[in-house]
Each structure stands twice: as C-alpha cells, then as structure tokens.
Fold these 4 entries.
Entry 1:
Amino acid sequence: MATTYGSDVPSIKVENPMNGQTPHIKPDPETIGASPAAHTDDDLYEDAGDLDFAGADQDLYLTRVPKFLWERWSQLDDSQEITIGMVRVEGGLDKVKKMSILLSPDVVQNRDLPREYNMQIVEQDPMNTFVFSEKDLPGYRAYSADRAPPRFKDRRRIEKTRKSEYKFRRAIPKQTTLVGQVRTEINCLPVENKDYIEYMKRRAKEESLSKPKIHVLNASVGGNTLQPGILGATVDTSAFITKAGPSRGKKQANKAVRVPADVLLDQIMKCFERFDFWALRSLKVELNQPEAYLKEVLERVATLTRSGIYVGTYQLQASYKDTAKYNFSNVKAEQAPEVASDFGGTDDDDENVKMEDVLPK
C-alpha cells in the first residue's frame, strides 16, 4: 500500500503474503521414484564399477564332463554351495599321478548316474585362462516409463490401450568379479564298470521308446463307400510302394572300431616315443581308428606343424614330454615313414590323379 501524507515522496508498505512462513514449492513429479540408472544415455555405457579381485589368488580346475552329467548338474541351484562329490588325488598335489572323483549319492541330480570317473590331466598352467562372474547391481530396473520423452507421456494419457509402447528397455549395470585362474585342464571320463554299462543300456532303451512308431494300414478301407471321397480311398495303393534294392556301396574290409579315449591317448603317446613327427594318415594306419575321432583326440596332446620341412605333421606338445609314464629319450627327430593304407573306400590322393579320355576302337 502506498501513501502520500506529509511528504512529497510516497511511502511503500511491503506485506508478506505467507505471514512469515517459508513458501511450499511443489516438486517435479518426474523426479519421484526414478530408477538410480535414469540418467543420460551415455551413463548406460560407462563403467559400472571396479573389478572385484577378491578371488584373484584362487586356483581353479577346468574340467570337461560328459553331456549326460552336465545335463544333470545344470539343474543345481547356483546360489547354494553343494558338494557334488569327493576328488581323490594319488601322488600329491605337486606331482599328481592319478585323479578320480566319486559322486555323492546325497545329491538328487547324481542319482541313477555312474558314480566313478577318471580325471585325466590334459594341460598344466594354461596361459591367460580366467573365470569371471557377474550379477546385476541392486536398485536398477530393466523397464521404466520415466525414460519416455515428454510428448509420449502426454499421449499415453489418451491412448491407454497401447501400454507396452512406452516401456523402454535399458541396460542394467553389472558387477564383475574375478573368481580365479585356471591352473589345470582336466578331462572327466566315466569308468566302464557295471554301473556305467547298466546306465548306458537304460539310456539306449529310453531313446528307442521315444522314437515315433510306424503304423502300416491295410490296402482296403472299410466303411460306407457311398459317402463322398470314400470311393477314391478304396483304390489299392500298394503298387506305389517299392522296396529299396540292395546297396551297391563298396564294403570296407577293415572297418575301424573306436576305442576309449584314454586308451587311444596312451597309444598316441607310445607312437611319439618312436618318432617326433607323425602325419595323420600314418597314425590312422598305425592305430586303426576313424580319422575324425583320431584327429579330435590327437589335438589334445599334439600341435599341427604349419611351416618347415615337416609341414602338415603333428608334434607332441612340450608339456607332455616330461611325463614320467613315457620314455622320450630314444625318440627320433624325424617324420614317421608313410605306410600304405589298407582301408576301403576312396583315398584323398585319387582326386589329384590326371585322367585321359580313351576313344573306343
């Protein structure tokens, strides 16, 4: 209020409309209940935190297990610590001679499975092999309507039926932990005892029962032939079914039969006691094994030579030459001699033979 009494200069009276109280400011509704990750798009790709090195000094075993065993163990709860079996080491941790594992019968997933397995060491101290784990950081949501632009928020009030259109998927930051470093690679092979043989028979029987069965119908179709379509169904269709003739494929005189992987590895190591370099074809003739299976087992302990005079041959890895079970003192530093193959079928060298056309006389 302004007055002009007793002076030429008007006086101004200032009144506080809130009567001395602090005015209340209504907060922005968009900032209430937002996710901790509701920032700019660049924040989604920033580092979620430091790498946890709590288990950096822990040594681990990397084990390859059979498929049927992994199918059962994959059903275990990852959040609980479960004792799946007992590992037996012969010879001490510094110089291991033999390792085996006996599955625990208390675990439900181990029931009806072979219990005894041999753990064959494939490689010691593999380079740069680590195991990591990660989990979602707490307090983050994968979907949030707060990420939508303002124009979509206004439109959502009108178009209420399309609810899923305004949900935006965003990345959840992960917390990464170093579990440990792999010190030993192992192959887990089941012991071929009575339990293993019974399990394989039971598994083969279950697979045979799960196969679809074929039902052979009679040539004549019964029923009311006056109905539409029945007359054509009575035609004998047996003439369309022909029996397959005898196969004319070339029979193999000496068909290779697989041996267990541990037995084949022992035979391969004995071959490298004689010569330092072996061609795959020479090993195939020497060991009488299928080529694909032999190559798969051979690459576990040997390396393919890619240059030099012995290119294309396999040489035993240096880590296996110190094995006390085998003697490599008298090995010859040369390639094993080529041996003619007695296997049936076509040979790879037949593709390089030049053919000539001969006209009939």
Note: The radius of gyration is 38 Å.
Entry 2:
Amino acid sequence: MIFYVVELSDDWNVDVPSWKYPRNLESPRVSSPDFGNDSKMMVMSVRCVPLTATHCRLRLDWSREHALWTPQQWSCVMFSDESRFSLQSDSRRTFIWRAPGTRYHQENTTERHRYGGAGWLVWGGIILGSRTDLHAQSVTMAGHIYRHVILEQHVRLFRGAMGAEFLFMDDNARLHRANIVDECLQSEDITRMDWPAY
C-alpha cells in the first residue's frame, strides 16, 4: 500500500508545496523544479500485519462472544500491552526523491541497525477504574524477566485484589507463551483471557 504526500498533508493538516506531490494519484512520478524535467518518485510504504481469513473469523467470533458482556464482567479484565521505542531512527518511513532505477545507490540508502539499536520497552496494564504503573526497561524483555517483573510484581497483585473472576489479557506474543510464563500463571491461579492471535 502506498500513501502519497497529498493524502498525508490532508490528514495532518500540513501545507505541502504543490510541486512536492503528484496531482494524478494514479502515478507517483512527478517533475520537480529542483530536479529539472527528470521523473522522480516520492513514496512511503506502510507496514501492517497481514490477516488471513482464519484470523478474521477468529476475531469476529471473539467479538460476537463478548458483545453482550456487562460492565461488571469487563471490570474483571486486565488488558496489557508493551511498546518498544528506539533511540535511533528506524521507522524506515523517510521520504526521499529518487530517479527510477537508483533505489540501491548509496545516496538513496540509510544504514539501520538490525534490532533498531538502543531503545526502551514500556509495559502497562489497564482495568476498569484502575491501571498498573508503567514499567520501563532498557533491555529486551525475556520470559524470566516478564515473569519476575510483570507477572509477579504487577499482575499478581491485581489478581489478589480482584479474586477468582480476574482475567488477564495479553496479545499472544511468543514471549507471553513461554513455559516459564505459563507455569507462573498456573501457580498464581491467574486465568488468561482467550484472545485471537495475529
């Protein structure tokens, strides 16, 4: 999927000089005053998670199953998620002007670290009427760290306060399905909410 600058400028209410984007959205090629009459391209690719028909069906089934839940039922669910923030630019969403056939020329490439270089991981959980403290760390989250820091220091406390009706939702990341994590959830009598995988 390709987004053009004209679409982004409309969405973000940004004034972009007209020569910087193509008037005909069928073609990203445009002549620029800075490059003479050479045909240049300015595009940004969008990354997304591809969903199969099975993914869509499972998500629809999950939605239908929970559509009639009461606020009381939802108040027992802790939703959790984590995000990783890179300290170096690694979004790969940099706009450049380049001529066709020059994609791999040195002036059109940007070096990037395989795992984005240094960064921070931030985790948090929310539940109706409350939330956990944000947990931030500068190292990669591994199963034993997730168990010790997240489950034992945050989730277990909410389970104790809520009782047996407590449900814990995570996003099915590989880390969340590690044996050490499953063992901890079982030993603490924490029920994981069924959540469709990506």
Note: The CA atoms of residues 3 and 44 lie 6 Å apart.
Entry 3:
Amino acid sequence: MAGNVAALTGSCVWLVVATVLSLPVSTTHSIVGATVGFSLVVHGTKGVNWIKMASIFGSWFISPLLSGIVSALTFLLVHHLVLKKPKPLEPGLKLLPIFYALTAAINLFSVFYKGSHLLHFDKIPLYGVLILTFGSALLVALLVKFVFTPWYRKRILAEVAKVKDKESLSSISVDNEFGKSRDVLVQSSVHMAHSSVKEYDVDQSGTKYPLKDDKETDVLYTEVEETGTPFNASTPLKSSANGIEDKTPEKDTLTTSFSTPLSNDNSDLPLLEKYDESKVFTKNNDDSKNSSSSSASSSTEDEETKRMIARENVKDKPECVALFSFLQILTATFGSFAHGGNDVSNSIGPLVAVWLIGTEGSALQKAQTPIWILFYGGFGIAIGLWIYGRRVIKTMGTDLAKITPSSGFCIEIGSALTVLIASNIGIPISSTHCKVGSVVAVGRVRSRENVDWKLFRNIALAWIVTVPVSGGISALTMFIFSLVM
C-alpha cells in the first residue's frame, strides 16, 4: 500500500510541475516512472522489467515520429483534394461524408474492440466489432451526404458572404486611414524642407570648427535648425561629393538647405529617411561590443518576426474554415474521450490497488473496479482541465505551431489513428507524444517558421526527464515511509 501511495505522490508532483511550466508530458510515463521508483527501493533492480522499460524509452521517438508521418500525409491529401482548389467548397462538401465516416470508424472501433467489461463490449467477437464499426460509419456517411451536407452548404455560403462583406468594409477603412497618414507625411516633409543642416568638426576641447574637405574629423557634429526658407518644389537639389548641396555661408559654416522633398519613382510620398543624417556619430572602442550585442538581439528579433509573418500566412480560406470547424470539434471531442479512457485508467491504477489491499487484503483483483473510483478519476481529470488545462492548451494550440481548422482535423485524425493501430499491434506509444508529433509535423509541412523549435526542444527534454524525475520523487517518498514505518 505504501508503494502505491509513493507512486501516486511521485507522478502527481511531477505532473503538476510540468503543467505549471506549460509542458505536455505523458501521464502514462509519469505513473510508470513512479512505480519503478518505489520498486527499486523495495526490491532493488530485480523488481523491474527492464525490457519493458526499454520499449517505453523507445516510445519517446516512435510515438511522435509515427503520428507525425500519418498526420502530415493526411494533411497533404486534404491539401491536394480540397485546400489548394480555387473553389474548395464543392470538393470539400463531396468529401465531407468520408471525413465524418472515417472519424466515426476510428473512434467506434477503439470503443468496441477489447472494450469495457462493464458494458460487455469485451465479449463481442472481432467480426462483430467490424460490422458495428463499418456499419455505423456507413450510416454516418449517408446521413451527412443527404441530410447534413445540403443544410451545411447554405450555412457556409451565408457565412462566407458575411466574411467577405466584413473584409470589404475593413479594406475601405484601411484605405481612408492610409490617405490621412499620407497627408500627415506630406505636411511633415514640407515642414522639414524649411530646415537647414549645419555640420561642424569638433576638437577634443569641444570647440567647433567649420567642416573642411582636407581635414580628418574625430567627431562629426550635425545641427538641424529652422531657416524659414520658403518651400519651393521646383528648385532642384544641387549635390556635391558628399551627397548634399555644398556652399559656404558668411559665418564660415557649412550650411545645407533642403528646398525640395525627396521622392522615388514608385511613390509620391517624401522619403524622410535622408534626415537621419542629423544624428551624431562618434568613434568609440566600445562600438564593436555594442554592435555584437545588438546584432544578437537583432537576430532573435528577426527569428520572432519571421515566425510571426509565417504564422500570419498560415490561414484557411473562409470556405475551408467553415468546412472543417465542426470536424475539428468532433475529432477533438473523440480525442478527449480517448485521453480520458487512457490517462484516467493509468492514474487511478495505484488507487485501485490501495483500495483492494484495504478491502480484500491483497492487490490481486478478483472483482470489478467499483464505479465510484472511475467517477472519482473522471471528476479529477475534469477539475484539472478546468484549473490548469489552459496552460497546456495554449502550448499545444497556439505556441508550438499555428493550427487552423483543416490542420487541426488532420492532427486529431492522425494521432488517433496512430494510437489505435500501434496499441493493437503492440507498439509502445503515448497519446500525448503522438499529439505533439502531429502538431509539429503538420506545422512544418505548412511552413518551417511556423513551428517554435525551441519550445519543441523543451518539450522533448521534459519527456526524457519524466520517468527519472517521477521515479526519483516516488523513491524518496518510499524511502521516508520505510524509515517511519
């Protein structure tokens, strides 16, 4: 009993820490690591099935890789058949019954095949499972084809019309704002055209001298001051070797008057960047250090900018958004159902053992697990989602990669299909790892900059430390119990 309490403690503490850090880790691997931890304290290395542990270590790579491949291939198929079409609505509506039937088939098979003993699903033979699965999927396809699709077409067309109306109104508003901004820029350029720029050579004592061509300067000191010269757009700008009009005023200073706005051939807006020459430049030995630090900061900012731009370009057409939105919700619901069946079962396993020891004096289960324990686990996962779920939801839904309805559907279908196939052929797999692998793979297919690779690295490191950390906490707890008891 103490060992199971230690296992629950180890897995619980690590899962809470990982969730606070917004890292999606495997509940299954947490409870496995915690079980191994207390077993090492009680029985030593002989109490651990190391071959089984090696298969769990292998799942760190197998799960995301398999799921990522399946999800990426699914997305490429959807992209070829629907997304890249000039008018994706009709191709999408034709494939809608197949999408719904596939979703239903995957989830129904996972429910019926080796299903609940309480509901007697485990007594259904394989051919019965296949008949129930594909018969139900066919019924879903027919209902979607003849009942749902006609109504959905009208609804999508209405929603697309609303979206296009909003976009047209937004475009008009942007054009008006651009016109106002252009007027302000023109007025600013006219005001700047009344300025004159004075450049001086400053010696080490701070005395200013007129800038001369044959003198090597230590500091270039530039002043901009109002001259009141009337703006004359017809007067050309005379250039000298240094790119500005060169004339010598009475006070033996070099004065440059800008008498026309600068413009290029592609725009009628003044180019105000020229006025940056009014800055003060100094030769300093620390410039190289400042330059290196600023370049590193600039590099990081450039990466963030590229990622933001890439994610802005990852979008579905309005028709595709409407087509796949409900499909994404449906597949996410089934995915949550599968997570509940898998993760709750793993997490309450030690609790069931504690209950059996307390009531029957042995961990060998002869009777069915009481319903109240199952409801207890379901209540716990619901409360956890309510309180802490938003952290991991944000990581998976927005931070790791931008997800649209179409890519979200492919991610859910790919990960569910991978878990179903792998679990039934005996490949060790984690549903959490599968979902992360699908998000990264589909995000990478859409755009390389769409994926936050640093975040993915942190998630992968969290996977690796899950077993040893939860096991270490469990082992420490069990060691304390052994000293006290």
Note: Confidence is low (pLDDT under 50) at residues 189-199, 213-284.
Entry 4:
Amino acid sequence: MAERLFKIFLVLSIFIILPIQIGTAEQTGTQEKKDLWRELNHTSDSILRNVKEGNYDDAKELLNRFSDDFLSIRAADENLTMRELQVITSVYDEVNEAVVSVSLPHKDRVEKASKLRLLVDVYDAPHEMLWERTRSSLITPISNMKSAVEAGNNTKFQNDLNAFINSYETVRPAWSISLEDENYEMIEAQIKYLQHLRGNFQNDKEILEHLDRMEAQLNKIYDGTKEDTSDPSLIWVMLTIGGAIVLSLTYTGWKKYKGEKEREKQRRRDRRRLR
C-alpha cells in the first residue's frame, strides 16, 4: 500500500513540477531576449548620438558591436521572420556605409542612423515606440505641399515633397515591421501615386485631394487606427496607380496577399505577447 501511494505521489509530482519548470525556462528565455533587444537598442542610440556629434570612428566601432550583438539575438529570438532579418540587415548596411562615406553630407548620415534607431526601438519598446513621436516630420510637409499647390508654386511643392520623402524613408523600416499590413501597404501605395502626380503639377485639384487622403491615412497610423480594407479609397488608389502596381494591388490580389500575410502577422503578435 505504501509503495502504491509513493508511486501515485511521484506521478503527481511530475505533473505539477514539470510544467512549472517549463514555464520558468520559457520566462528565462523571454527575459533573455528582452535584455538582448534592450542592449541593442542602447547601442543604436549611442550610434545615433555619435553620428550627430560627428564622431564617425566611434560610431563605426559601435556598429561592429551592434553586428555581434545582433548575431546573439538571431540565435535567441526564433520569432524573427526572414523579412524582418532582411529589413534590419539592410538598414544596418546603410548606416555602416554612411559613417565611412566621406562624400555623404552629415545630415544624410544622421538620417541613416535615425532609421536604425527607430527600427530597433520597435523590438525593445513595442508598446511605446519612438516613431510615434515623428508625426510632425510627415504632417508638416503635407501641409506645406498643400499651401504650395494652392499658391501655384511648383518649386516649393517639389522641395516640400522631397522633404516628406526623406522623413518617410527614415521611419519606413520601423513601420514595415510594426504597422498592421493594411496601414503600411496603404501609405506605401499613396506615396507611390503622389510621386506619379509630381510631374503633373497643373492637375492641382487631384493633387490636393490625394494629399488630403494621405494626411488622413497618416493620422490613422499615428492615432493607432486600423485601416478598413473595404474603404473605397483603398480600391481607388490600387486602381489608379497604374502599371506593375495595379497588378500587385488589385483588389483580388490584395485579398489573396492579405491571407498569405496572416501567418506572418500572427507570428508577430505571438512574439509581442512573449515580451
């Protein structure tokens, strides 16, 4: 009888203790990933600070450390998708080239380093991301473009559009990782169409209407509102852009694309729940 009770106790102990051990191991792994991302984020901040101060050699050394630390993260964070790895690697390469490029203006180097800073911060602070503070850098050029169109000043419009594109390129990698796919693809399509319109400045009414749509979309992004894929304006943009964009963004293709991306989106959500 005593032997039987001992066996029952042993089995119950296994069922009770084993899940606790597994849970503890998972928590340890999750904390390790958080710590690695936090350290990488601090490094990206130091890189940006040194670039701003013109300390390019120090920034280069920090980029070498960044590369080593990122290898550790790749080994520890199994939730990183291939696309995310490509985005991070591509932005890192841009900054690495920028800090050693003698011919590149200081302003451009700072923009490259800022791009990396905003991107890495998405992983360290997914609930309070730095890019959320960049609203004015995109909304202000939109307002300036409207004023230029209304005044018939094509030169100012082109300059303001260039300023907008520069600001967008800085935040774009972070958005490609952190935004809902619908919001990101929508603003991408709108910007491509705006660039198409820049050669038709005389069509001021269409440009102003498109800028209004872009401003509304940007406000949705900064306010954290999910894009409604049934919105007729989305279909309008997809059908208007033309050429290869039409082929890739027609409504039927969009629905199929959305379905294919759902698995990646779910992995993203799973990773953030672990954090």
Note: The chain has eleven helices and no strands.
